Amino acid sequence: MDTPHDSATAASTTEGLPVAPSLGPAIEQLHLPHATEENRARIVYISLLAIGAAIAAAIAAEVLVGVIALVTNLAFYGRISFTPVSPAHNQLGAGVIMVPVLGGIVVGLMARYGSTAIRGHGIPEAMERVLKNESRIAPRVTLLKPLSAAVAIGSGGPFGAEGPIIATGGALGSLLGQVVRITADERKILLAAGAAAGMAAVFSTPVAAVLLAIELLLFEYRARSLVPVALASSAATAIRMSLHGGAPVFPMADIAQPDAMAIVSYIVLGGVIGLLAAGITQAVYRLEDAFERLPIHWMWWPALGAVAVGVIGYVSPRTLGVGYDNIQDILTGSLAGTVLLSLVLLKLISWAVALSSGTSGGTLAPLFTIGGGLGSLIAAGAMALIPGLGMDLRVAGLVGMAAMFAGASRALLTSIVFAFETTRQPMGLLPLLAGCSAAYLVSLLRMKHTIMTERLARRGTPVRTEYAADYLDQLLVRDHAARQVVTLGGQQTLADVRRWMADGAGGASHQGFPVLDQAGGLIGVVTRRDLTDPKAEDAATVGSLIKRPPVIIFDDNTLRQAADHMVRARVGRLPVVSRKTPRRVVGILSRSDLLEAHEDRLDEALSAQTPRLDIRAAWGRGES
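Now predict its structure.
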């Protein structure tokens, strides 16, 4: 190592350090890198909390479904009953128009005088809490969100119950995470676990619920988050099965294995649905912009949007309410032709206007209805024009349903697995994979943000929906630390060091210097600012400037651990040591080294600009 002193003759001093002068600080006094392995035991504790949140979310789901049924029965049939019923069979005539309007007035009042957080369909709001508010959701939202959703949906709002239930489950997980003493990261896991449990409790789709949490809420894929969410989803599904049995939510007759031509057709269908999903997403936010320009208080927007819901509900009663029966009829082929076309168009208008008004409701069921209907209609038209496509209208509806959600939300795996779990049709997996992937691709090409993230982006909250392994976590300190280290002796005088720096010798321009004792052991680090401090007299020794034991990094640590260690210790450089000799400096790592480590990553990202491989030449050289 390059040194400005003769370490054989340098005296040792460790003034200010509670250690023997010639030995330096003991290993237990060094500032060691944070050991992430110690947190693995927390997975068990967080998993138990997640299961508790799941139980609460499953109960909340049952309560919310019951309250929606109660409001629906009261509003459309004038009776007290908790039995789920569709508003489509009401006998109110033109009076049905006022039911959603009254519900919109109640939701507006709840939002203004209760909490504005109840507005919207739930998932974007949960994402925002994860990204900007340490996953904290106000306790009153836990109560007001499901109540407002029950009023909005029960009075005919064209929404599914799943969005509010997912939001409520997330709020319950967040609330639990605020009561117990855990970190913000662990609170995020509980929020995602509660949200996944809410979805699983509605649809009995445990795997899709976990994937939804990963793709839209967790923003990571790690065991510490995956295990608690998976256990929560399993617990909620078990509760649902104990109450309602294990039958699929949307049962279908067995479908046949599709041939190659049919798979190609489903790919094309998925691409068309993805294009429509992008258009629908953009239309929703244009309508939202239109509401923003209205000269009335936003409290009245839900009631105004409900006018469209009521009028359309009078014309087409099937558009009112959650509409799970519509999805079932599409997947069984019971709805077709002009009846299905009318349902799709009117449901789209009703839902888009109501959602844009800021009322409380979900997006999954409406998107499934619209996508399923469009898939069936497009397939029917294609088969009439081009015989021999081999498509099944039921499968086309299934692909359209999932592809619409994949295109609008870009939750690709969630969409595929959800469609499979709700129908239990294994032969539908290949068409689903083909169609949803095509929809996802088209959505990527057509729009920058999704129906879940557009609002957040407008508020200045960027949302990353593509995840990659931490590059720094794949690199070791020993491969990127500088091996030529300029060190100082602990008993060198400042006068000597300052003359050396003034002479401009090699390393004199460095900003930090490890300080060694007579035996060459690390005792601390001083900075250029310490050495040039006018308050420090020339006769003082370098060792007297050491303020704390050295902050070190091991040569087998990763650059991610090193970067985190710098942040936690608030230093800009780390002496590198080996585990066998933790006071023997073998290198030094600075912040600039961390930045330079990204050069290879950037080169790989731009590899298309490098010369192409000559196959024949490489073959002749025997290269693999």
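Residues 159 and 221 are 30 Å apart (CA to CA).
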